[in-house]
Description:
Blueprint: E1 22-24, E2 31-33, H1 34-40, H2 46-49, H3 85-98, H4 110-117, E3 132-137, E4 143-147, E5 152-157, E6 160-165, H5 166-172, E7 182-187
Antiparallel strand pairs: 1-2, 3-4, 3-7, 4-5, 5-6
Amino acid sequence: xxxxxxxxxxxxxxxxxxxxxxxxxxxxxxxxxxxxxxSLGRCAYEExxxxxxxxxxxxxxxxxxxxxxxxxxRVLGVTATGETLAGAIQGAYxxxxxxxxxxxxxxxxxGRRALSALPPRMCCPLCGQGPxxxxxxxxxxxxxxxxxxCDTVWRRTGEGTLVTDLTIHLEEQGxxxxxxxxxxxxxxxxxxxx
Length: 194
């Protein structure tokens, strides 16, 4: 059995001492004094079980109000599903943004790397390398085509198709020149028009 000395029982609030009779919730792993668990008749964190939350020594710090908190560096894997890989990536990043704690950081390149790891369906006619995505500019809703490798943008206008650079295109709209400003909708294949 693990040593829970120094952590607090979520029912009585007393620190576990060496030799205490401790039981662990089979759903979330939270330790309780056996008598406290028995008197409550359930885990003190039962309402968190449906969300899949788990107790760990790091979550024990500062939990007087019954919330799980972090007490140091954590690596979390956040996943989501979607109609497309791009939709799943967008859902995962949206979920990751909802996880908040002091000095939180998260990578924003992993999903894009996963998309680019897929065999390109249509190679960029300019650089010959990157896949081309249909994307919506989040700030305006405009739908464009963009090369993942060279950042070339194709957009339809009244006069035809205009070719430009992603940085220039976003800056002209007053937006920062970042891929995060785009919602990737689909990877283009040979039958699609730029």
